[in-house]
Structures
1.
Amino acid sequence: MPVIPYAQWNRPIEFAYRCATPIAEISFHSHSFYEIYYFHEGQCTFLIGDRIMTLAPGDLILMHGMTLHRPNPQPHVPYIRTLIHFDPAYIYRILPEDTVRGLLLPFGELRNYRLSLSGERRAEIERLLEELSRLYEASERGDAVQPFAYERFTLRFCELLYVIKGCCRQPVDRQIHRSERERHVQNIISYLERCYHEPVTLDAIAAELHLTKTYVSNLFKDVTGTTVFQYLYNRRINQAKIQFRLDPHMPVTKVGKAVGFAHPAHFTRVFKAAVGCTPDAYRRRMLELQQAGDSASPLLSASGV
């Protein structure tokens, strides 16, 4: 099944089963809906928020929206994953409020959490994903032989949330670094997370981690698929988007400075390249949504991974 661009996803629960489409260019992105990501096969490191993960088949990631993330699959190796995006407000409309609070607790409390599944738990999740795929495809076809396919899909999705909640009841190793190289990259990311809003140089990172500047630059690119400064700029832009959503009255220059851009023109140029509009246009859109009392969350990404 091909990856569907986020901008074309218009159901409260969207599902793409066993995507195997190679992705020529993968950018950092964030979105306001929740995501369930299941890794079937391949070789991939996944950068999400301030953590890097080396994925293994059976890994399931719960994403809590608006967190910057980017997979880095190895080229010439099949990259097979299942993606589910859903609007938590929709789940509140179809189930009792207390029930939903419990089901979504892993997304809210754990945030961007990896479950490494094996044995019967993994088999149960994969059976559910296959059944969800069958019902979702029937709903897209408008299959008369399977009426109410999307409604049944929704019920099975709620069952999946229950299974995930059960998996989260026991301690799970949140982070496994499989090499010294990954530990170094994790330390680089942690440094950038602490200091993204300040002036950052490769010299400062190298000094902090007792590594050479060249090693820091080459290692980060090799493991993550992006450069240190591409990551840094995307982290700042993502924080700016969050700030505009929280307070659309804040002036653009103040937001740019708060997230680490010393020059307004640089902030505008980088923001437009990443988001597709100027920060002022984005801020006005957030202000319009606030004034209209629109609780719908705008989609903030243009490519699916």
2.
Amino acid sequence: MLTIHAADLVLPGGGHAPVPGGAVVVRGSLIAAIGPYEDLAAAHPGARTRRWPGLLTPGLVNPYGPELLERAYHPDPREAAELGTEPITGASALAALGMTDARWGASARRGVQRMLAHGTVAVAGDLWRPAVVDAVARAGLSTEQRFDAPPGPPSLDPLADGRPLAEAVLTPLGPVGVDAGFAVFDVRDEAELAARGAGTCVATVLAGRLVFRRR
């Protein structure tokens, strides 16, 4: 089945020009075409169309995989009254929680969902806890090598600390036939995305699947 994801502006990356009123055509898990929406809709009259506000970009890589998933606990919403809603870090704080493999796995699943809500399609850094590795694999996120510890405190926002979009994307959109992994942000352009951050994400697509949609 073909799906056309249309946005106000598409940034393919990889040195390719922005496409105002652009769209990405997805066939199964792969990108089938990129270009102006009107052209793609005419070429694929039977395709389903999803219209998004704002900016469509390649999916992002969060550089803080181990820090956010293996050195932080993401509280269950049912624990909010006791633990709050922000990730809990620090050896003593984690020890007080009595972390088990099952609890690490549940925390990682919640952490991954929060990453998806920031346009993330991959994490960087070595993961070694089996429950965390399983949670990442089940979500479909890829894991990337990193050779140096990233600067700044860990953040769910891959664009935190002024990280440029070009450095944060996993791969450009295209060529045709590559995995369809991208995100849509409710901003007008790259400058506004840099100013407001990836928390403006309204949709994340991973291997052609809509894995996050802000309601």
3.
Amino acid sequence: MSGIIISGKELAQEKRIEMKQQVDTLKQKGITPGLAVILVGEDPASQTYVRAKQRACEQTGIHSEIDEVSPSITEAELLEKINVLNDAKHIHGILVQLPLPEHISEKKVIETIHPDKDVDGFHPINIGRMMTGQEGFLPCTPFGIVEMIKSKGIEIQGKHAVIVGRSNIVGKPVGQLLLNENATVTYCHSRTKNMQEYTKSADILVVAVGKPHFIDADDVKDGAIVIDVGIHRNEEGKLIGDVLFDNVKEVASYISPVPGGVGPMTITMLLHNTVVSANRRLK
């Protein structure tokens, strides 16, 4: 019997309906949640992603601003733009779309965004809050992954969670969030020996390795929960993930698809963080 699909697309739609109600309530109290996005350069993938964020804001009633700037902008000029947004009372969330041109320090940009407006959850202060279980903004993709698992009523506590990938954006933080939910967490990466021994022991397997069809059915324990973070285009132009979906779904109890899995939840949790920020401003 095939595994049950965990549809991030459906869950995102449900959460955005709830969010619109929250936004309407805030507007009645005189606050419209505002998200500002700075897009440096003309990277097609970044442009597509930013447009998707803008549409999501429109659906939920969140005010959005997009500042498209030349890739030749200096680091000092970009940091000044961020500081203006830090002081802007109508903006509750700031996001600088990555990647950035080589002459601009990603680290400086992230650290310049005020932690209370860091709705991407990348600022070291918010990362520290996540590590220590304090209130702060959680990174959007890992946050969305945990929400997907919880949406099916799956008990995380006591489960063995294996994370394939250790990026700062997904791998490391999703492991920490699952640890915060009392899972036992193992990280696998490019230097891991006998990786299959770890993946086959996972009750929850999160694959964020960035390699198409890296995980097959032989790598997965019967009845495991499998979350696929990867997204690639094959030779036919079809979107595929890090997991060989058709094979793995036959052994997994739950599995997320590509597309329609983690992707829609990333933007949704960004909006969620923006609404939370506006609520905090109200309080």
4.
Amino acid sequence: MTEQSPPPRCDTAERARVIAAAHALGVPRDYGRRHRLHIMREPRELACIGIDIHGRKQWLAPPAARAWARMHAAALHDGIELQVVSAFRSASYQLRIIQRKLDHGQSIGEILRVSAAPGYSEHHCGRVVDITTPGYAALEEEFEQSPAFAWLQAQASTFGFRLSYPRNNPHGIAYEPW
């Protein structure tokens, strides 16, 4: 992979292999139905949106990348710094996250309360970005106390973004204010 190359994506056959591997790790076969989630197709194209808080390049589908750029600029104009924590990730990458958490002793039930199963994560579609702001821990509920969260609550829908997992969401995934 060259410096400018987007991360690898899963085609239909690879996604099916990843989902089968996830079932072998303990993801229930009726996971999608039970959690009201659908298989997410990965985009054909990805556009780089810059570097995340960990120094890694992040990618989104081109329309989402343009919307992110507009939203990021508008936030900066209003004195709000939005930082990317995570954007596109393939189903294969999501499987590696699940495996790593299992290797660290978490149960599949614990993992699926905070992460969608491989194949079902909105991150696969390339239209999702996890966000933080300086002074707040990444991927923690404390973000909802930030001026950035208040700005996003008021402005994100203008740019086509929404909160994926609000409190008491029908998917059974933990609240994510980021």
